[in-house]
């Protein structure tokens, strides 16, 4: 018999042996992973035993209670039933504690626990590691660096730029309502707030509201908001490789490319502008720099400037946060006033007495709109732009009622639940601006449309100013009414949106 004939069975036997070893090793690893998951679930069950919730499936958690997108209403029933906080199981080994009590939230926001890794890492391919997701000393340096961009001397001249953007939008509305009084406003408002950000924070000249190409950026933001939200809740998409290979992952990648193209172009144009002779020194001599100026001239404590990656991350973060959250706040406020004509008319009379028939609005006017301010705050209570934020406990915590949680448990600060909590706000579904009347009192952490603590929204004053300008000028031009055939349905995304848009009926005022 030849040597080759003898060697073939030996080779096959060797391959078979390797397959057996590989199979055994795979089985051992699988058993170890199963044991790890089992121990993690047991640890969570013990950690969360003080926080009851509705019965959950051992694998699917509470997912079957939230089959459609309107999960906010079922969660509000939990808010009524379970005092202060409750556990929410996403699946077998992933759970978090929903918190919707002001005393509980005050304790959490007074600490320095990091943002939830599982939730916020999904945003990094989109907005990078900017102010929203940074932690520790790097976050502190960036926050301190950017704070001067929101000094009131910087914000003052922005009021005129905001008014210009709002007028462009309202002019478009006049043309559209001459054909049909029904209008979906959120899309238009999003374009207007992006236009405002481009003018105020990035010194963009002219209006982008007539640029059709910018619609692709707005749509990409909408897509990424939906995709990020759904990914957090999908057990199979937690793995980056699996997600990248999925249809949703490829869709997300394309949308990220579109947003990055937009921000890269903004940075490129600003850099080119600064390279013009005399322009650089002119900017350096300004007492206060705008947002992008600060980023381009920034020096860290070690003397280094921001890398291109860090620069784009901050621009991406502010471009998204600065326009999308404000667009949500303005659109829901207009809907709330459309649904309550008596409050709408009182706001209109206030702004008419202040501005007359003209539309020139200044910084000083913003402090002379008490009723409009009350209505905006009440709308932000009913429709907080950011319905949830997330934290991972870095050390054990004990709440005011004595209940406690160990380090490692994820928390969800449920601002939508807080604002609709009947133990905090009597008759929480009623639109009642008098809750925010001068002299009224409430818990320091009962109203958090811009979060709270050291990581509150850096642009909250900018956002409030823009909302006042937009609401005031809109009410001077139009009478608003809801569209009874298309009542908006709030849904949680990165920013609070409506499942079916925000549709209003508009009537031009003479």
Automatic annotation (TrEMBL):
Annotated compartments: Endoplasmic reticulum membrane
Pfam family for this entry, one: p450
Residues that coordinate or bind heme: 457
Swiss-Prot/TrEMBL keywords: Endoplasmic reticulum, Heme, Iron, Membrane, Metal-binding, Monooxygenase, Oxidoreductase, Transmembrane, Transmembrane helix
Spans through the membrane: 12-32
Biological process terms in GO annotation: lipid metabolic process
Protein name (record): Taurochenodeoxycholic 6 alpha-hydroxylase-like isoform X1
Organism name: Neophocaena asiaeorientalis asiaeorientalis (Yangtze finless porpoise)
Gene: LOC112400415
